[in-house]
Amino acid sequence: MKYDFTFHNPTKIYFGKDSLDNLETELKKYGKRILLAYGGGSIKKNGIYDKVIAILKKCDKEVFECKDVLPNPALSKMLEGAKTIRDNDVDLVLAVGGGSVIDCAKGMSVAAYYDGDDVFKSYWVNHEPLHKNKIVPLGTVLTMVGTGSEMDAGSVISDTDNKIKNATDLFNPDFSILNPEYTYTLSKYQMVSGIFDCMSHLMEQYFSGDDDNTSDYLIEGIYKSIINATKIAVKNPLDYEARSNIMWCSTMALCGIAGKSKTQDWEVHMIEHQLSAYTNCAHGMGLCAISMPYYRYIYKFGLPKFVRFAKEVWGVDAIGKTDEQVALEGIDCMEKFAKECGMITTLKELGATKEMLPDIANSCILGGGYKKVTHEEILEILKNCYE
């Protein structure tokens, strides 16, 4: 392990079919007033809402609601929830949904008693350390996998007025309840979108460095697990073992441990954030459309790692091939897998227009791992992603 690091993850995980039974125990640790945050109403159709409300009533909690959190959560909704927290002296925010709901709930908890001038600018743009004002505790009940937000500090919020979508680290949930069966009602589109989000998190951490790092071996194992589980889940979405493996892979991918002692990349995410700011596309699908052209653009600068990826993750046979051929075959395998699973691989399919591409490219935060890209290079990558 080349670089020093500190690892601490304070989130308590309850995992499995009966994991919601632990909500009552957790609720006893907090005060009476609860803000329930959720999305467009699917939790009411599948019965999860009723189960959670029944437990809240049993615990004699006073419930306030912040609903209709969008898949790309908006700053306006975050501030709405923050006002509800502040006006009602809420003791705990309970986010029931996927990563977007959890991300937005983190923002609500931080913004409620924020004592500065512009909470979005402070944390999501300037990435300032958190102020010392009160932060309301957060618990989650996960219903869609992909973001890893149930066990990390990350929060992605969109300022829709200014077309800025940024990520920042805020704080971890106190506890998260993960029942793989709660993901059964997702559409195939939602399921595979979340799966590629998880895969992208792994690749953003993997494609960096030239040292022999334990984290890379962990990433390879998680990646192979999610490939195998995805093949099963696409054929049988109700396969509990496959869905449970996907859920835990997603949590492990971004809980902090897989990227320790690594420099990391994250440029694919920076590009996608601005893509979805302009198109409101599903995050995982945007990542999928960008990833293959991006990696074909930068692979020569980290050739040994791309060769390793091809051989160790995708089982590419290197006999009689150059390193470049092996590396490109690994990327081809990833693209083939994505298409077979029904993932989106072009920007055109996501609603982007050619006229948008320069604005998307010019608004991206610059960075990268093996190759530090420019705005001009991002535009070239986007053109290669288009169709």
UniProtKB/TrEMBL annotation:
GO terms for molecular function: alcohol dehydrogenase (NADP+) activity; butanol dehydrogenase (NAD+) activity; metal ion binding; methylglyoxal reductase (NADPH) (acetol producing) activity. Residues 10-180 form the Alcohol dehydrogenase iron-type/glycerol dehydrogenase GldA domain. InterPro entries: ADH_Fe/GldA, ADH_Fe_C, BDH-like. The keyword Oxidoreductase applies. The keyword Cell membrane does not apply. It holds the Pfam family ADH_Fe_C. One of its GO terms (cellular component) is cytosol. Keywords: Oxidoreductase. Signal peptide: none annotated. Residues 192-385 form the Fe-containing alcohol dehydrogenase-like C-terminal domain. Its EC number is 1.1.1.1. Gene3D superfamilies: 3.40.50.1970, Dehydroquinate synthase-like - alpha domain (1.20.1090.10). This is alcohol dehydrogenase. It comes from Piromyces finnis.
